[in-house]
Design brief:
The chain is of the alpha/beta class and about 325 residues long. The chain has one domain (about 15-305): TIM Barrel (Alpha-Beta Barrel), CATH 3.20.20. It is built from twelve helices and eight strands. An eight-stranded parallel sheet has the order 7-6-5-4-3-2-1-8. Helix 10 (about 230-250) links the parallel strand 6 and strand 7 (about 255). Helix 6 (about 135-150) packs parallel to helix 8. The radius of gyration is 19 Å and the shape is globular.
């Protein structure tokens, strides 16, 4: 993870329910605001290319499949090191560009660490019984420690949705705080599985609890729910980030994940960050995109910017 000296690592706070317990999110208003975000700003030509290049640096290039192998992870890491074809990178002045991180299952971490050695690209690992998070807490904490011991620099944890659905916010805080402690030096991204939380009010409250418990990032989804990252959910979480920063001075990152596949998706979420949080929250130390196929479409759009022609998608394989 890219560090910035002006931002000490998130420390969280004590459990403070008065920061969120009386909050109620107006869902129709959030949906209207989200719908207008991508129609009120246009980014074209060289600026669009620059934004897409920024998106590449924010991607957590991900493989979380049951048939993952060392070979697949190694190919993914090769793509992470060189996300653009050399001719495109040279034409755009982007030699040396890399993605933000590579995200894998815990048992794949050693393969990723070896393949990324010397690149500066961190390895992120899901943990805590991903994606359901319903294994016993001691096992979830042990899985975090295992992934860190194997070399993961970032841990994507999942919360117990039951705590959020029943309003047991103190239990959720205690659980996430223990996970943060188990992460040690590794940065922790708290996956809220927002598609399971039913209401935007629950999303806001879960976001605030995760940040109080010390999450370095809050993340929308595992990618395995029926509904994953959406703009209204992301808007709610970003406003929670702003509120937490205003209350504590601590800057927490944001990661949308699940269902983001195209260059247009990347632009939409970058616009959200620009409009709601400002330019500083568009940097990879505060913004990540969980994706796999998105990178191929971004590369295709950048080729069109350079050559004026669209190529077949299969010319931009993921790995």
């Amino acid at each position: 993870m890219i560090e910035n000296d002006s931002f000490p690592r998130v420390q969280g706070t004590s459990f403070t329910p008065e920061w969120f317990e009386k909050v109620s999110i107006n869902t129709p208003a959030a949906e209207r605001r989200a719908a207008t975000l991508t129609t009120r700003r246009t980014v074209k030509k060289d600026w669009q290319a620059a934004w897409l290049a920024r998106a590449i640096t924010c991607i957590d290039l991900t493989t979380l499949a049951g048939d993952d192998t060392a070979g697949r992870v190694q190919r993914l890491c090769a793509k992470a090191r060189a996300p653009l074809r050399p001719d495109l990178a040279a034409a755009l002045g982007l030699e040396g560009i890399t993605v933000g991180a590579v995200c894998v299952y815990p048992t794949m971490v050693p393969h990723a660490v070896k393949a990324l050695e010397g690149s500066g690209i961190p390895v992120a690992s899901v943990a805590t019984g991903f994606p359901a998070g319903l294994t016993p807490l001691p096992l979830r904490l042990a899985e975090i420690r295992y992934a860190v011991d194997q070399g993961a620099a970032e841990i994507d944890i999942v919360i117990t949705r039951e705590h959020a659905l029943t309003g047991n916010w103190a239990a959720l805080y205690d659980e996430i705080a223990q996970m943060r402690e188990a992460c040690g030096p590794a940065h922790m991204k708290a996956i809220l599985a927002t598609g399971d939380l039913k209401t935007l009010t629950n999303v806001y409250c879960a976001s605030m609890v995760a940040m109080q418990a010390g999450a370095d990032f809050i993340k929308t989804s595992t990618g395995k729910e029926e509904v994953n990252a959406t703009l209204p959910v992301s808007l709610t979480m970003v406003r929670a980030l702003r509120d937490f920063r205003d209350l504590t001075g601590q800057w927490v990152g944001f990661k949308p994940a699940g269902g983001l596949k195209t260059a247009k998706d990347a632009m939409n979420w970058l616009i959200l960050m620009k409009e709601e949080a400002g330019t500083r929250w568009m940097m990879p130390d505060l913004f990540r995109i969980g994706a796999s196929s998105m990178l191929g479409d971004i590369e295709r759009q950048l080729e069109h910017h350079v050559t004026g022609r669209y190529s077949a998608a299969n010319r931009h394989a993921l790995a």
